[in-house]
Write a structure and sequence with these properties.
The chain has helices at residues 28-49, 51-54, 66-85, 110-115, 117-123, 125-152, 156-167, 170-175, 187-197, 204-242, 247-281, 311-314, 334-350, 356-373, 391-394, 412-427, 434-448, 466-469, 495-505, 536-547, 555-568, 588-599, and strands at 60-62, 91-92, 101-102, 377-380, 383-388, 458-460, 482-485, 519-521, 528-530, 570-575, 603-605, 608-612. The chain has 615 residues and is α+β, with helices and mostly antiparallel strands. The protein has a 4-stranded mixed β-sheet with strand order 7-10-12-11.
Length: 615
Amino acid sequence: MPLSSSALAGPPPQPSAPQPSTAPTPDRPNRRRVDLLVALVAIVGAVWVTSGLWLDPNGRAITVNSSDQALFEWLLAYGAHALSHGQNPFFTDLLNVPDGVNLAVNTSVTVYAVVFAPLTYLIGPPATFLVVLTANLAGTAFGWYWLLSRHLVRSAPAAVLGGLFIGFAPGMVAHANGHLNWSAGWVAPMLLWGVLRLRQPGRWLRNGILLGVLVAVAFSIAAEGLFFTALACAVFLGTWALDRGRRVEARTLLPTFLRGLGITAAVAFALLAYPLWMHFLGPQRFHGTGFDPVIHAEDIAAYGAYPQRTLAGLAGLDTSLAPNPTEENSFLGLPLLVLAVACFGLLWRHADPVRRATLRALGVTALVFTVLSWGPRVKIFEAHTDIPLPYALLGHLPVFNAALPSRLALVVAPVVGLLLAHAVDLLRSIPLSRRARTAWLAGFTVALLPLLPATLLTVHRDPVPEFITSGTWRQYVSPGGVLTPLPLTLDLAPDGQRWQAYALAHRQGEFAVPAGFFLGPGGPDGRGRIGPVPRPTDALLMEVARTGERPTITDADRTAARADLRYWRVEVMVLTPEAHGAKFPIRWEAVLDVATELFGQPERVSDVWLWRVSP
């Protein structure tokens, strides 16, 4: 969250723009030692959280979200391929034949795909995914520490505590279950640093250009996170500027700030003109995600609950108040909520009236995002009510309709981290009795110890079949032709994108697949949906794969299957006994029987069954 560079308590500020604290700062060699120590702790913590994948990056998958893992692996491979082959990084015909996929309305992580393209070609998409995921967690912790230590607090312990808490907050660890976009929390402190620099007199052009580039990078990696950060900045700065004690200062800073903001908008628009056009006007676009905002709203009780992958969760204190373990966006625990209120009270009591403007703005920001995260109607302890909430007025607006309300809770954890850091900073500078210091230490321990992160759950993932890894597929598919696994590629069965990612990253050439795991049009009221609108054959085979039941195949089924294959332009269908199901085991024996009834006897080629499709 944006925060004035002045401390919340301490010596009175100068009458000009907010300045960093005038308290003595550590000498440069000592600061460098602290920086290295924090970087090391952040890296060790990130490796610890992701250690289940490090055991075998190609053979392990995130248990609760292997489908998103496969999607981001594909995005890294396709981005590298598009860069090296001069293809469009924001639209692809390799998925969802014959319509293609608009990647600009999906999370295309274009910057990551370009920056890590050499690594993707060197070690493959799964290992590159793991490197980026681990770097995201470590970078988030260090990024917040850096912002705190350079601009917001005076003491190193305060910056360390705040940075590590925000970097490994429950929401960050939850989204490490496969989300390269939301785990990139380092984007927020870099954006806030850029916003703080806009107030510098005489440097609005340079600072505006810099922030514009940061905005473009953030849009590529986490557009939803960029929107939340911008919204939080607006709430914080608006509240701060309207405070009576800051109005004169705000009017003085406003011209420089607006000039820099105008340059930021111009630079960002110039860099993002085409992606934005694709997002709002391009082919295969949609409006709204199609996810139910009532289901994907934060349960009020979730703020006081503990998440699964923490010490408290391992002790059996976790709950099921999130729609899935990846969306535990608040889950701060009741002791931490009490501690945050106590820190707010402490800071308020020791702050002068002018500095209380910053504290008030922080409180308003936390309150606004907490209430908005509850979605359109009150939900508490999984009981849905008809009591309306402010989000009901916003959920239909552009941009808001493409965000999940529960994720607005991710803004609250950084506010809590800032309060903790400033409280530690203050506690180190004011006289306290031994009993009081012991009480504060106990409070921090009781609140934070249960939230220490545990490792992500992982599961064995069957390897890409030899039919693909050996390049044998090229003998059966024309260049750019369509190959499909059975069942067809969807979020529930992401093998097609895994195989395609392998082929692209190992420079084997291109094959396209029908369907796929992506967000596209076709949902109710013009909203989006996961994957394409099902056709009879893919719906039939997915149901067989899920249940193992073998329905009676009729001539009408065979006629529909032939029509679907023509529509998809399929040349080869492939079934492997090692098919990976993201939410359930693939009943491949049943799929083999039903596919044989539909398409005839398959060939056994390498380690797969194969059906050739006549033109």
